[in-house]
Design a protein that fits this description.
This protein has helices at 16-41, 44-61, 71-89, 99-129, 132-143, 148-155, 159-184. The chain is mainly α. The chain has 2 domains: 1-114, Rna Polymerase Sigma Factor, Chain: A (Orthogonal Bundle), CATH 1.10.1740; 130-186, Arc Repressor Mutant, subunit A (Orthogonal Bundle).
Amino acid sequence: MPNASSPDTPPPALSPAQQELFVRELNAAHALLLRYAMSLVGNRHDGEDVLQRASVVMWRRFGEFQPGTDFVAWATTVVFYEARNFQRVAGHCRLKFDDDLMKTLAAERAQHVRQWPARVTALQACVEKLEPMQRKLVEEIYTRGVEAAELARQEGRAVQTIYNKLNFIRRALAECVQRSMAETHL
């Protein structure tokens, strides 16, 4: 990323309106940016580190951001470069990518991250279409955090039966979400 000022020159201070805009934009995009960072570095802990570093860079450079333009596009660029730096510097990072692969992954992940809200909406609609017993199973496992073994014990079934049901439901939900996304992009 080009640097408008030398490292020794502090960026100009942000006005209160710029500070408020930055906080609003970053808060609105935080979950998307975290998923994006995680997809580039491979896990949540490193993704949080990358996003924290990127947030500091974004704060320092927010004066360069043009209000009214796409904050997520601008922010994912910053996150991308911070993820690259993280991979170069962090010897403990399990995932190592060359620059070309990193750029390809970043572009694909940025597109995926942008589709996330629509995918969540589609998933919610698909869950509503499930049979009541299937929906109850999904809610127990994924919303309430009940262990499959506990559900199996309560129902007097084998744990594998619960896993088989979940696998069937996940496939059905994935297909439903894909159909829904395809229909909305026609």
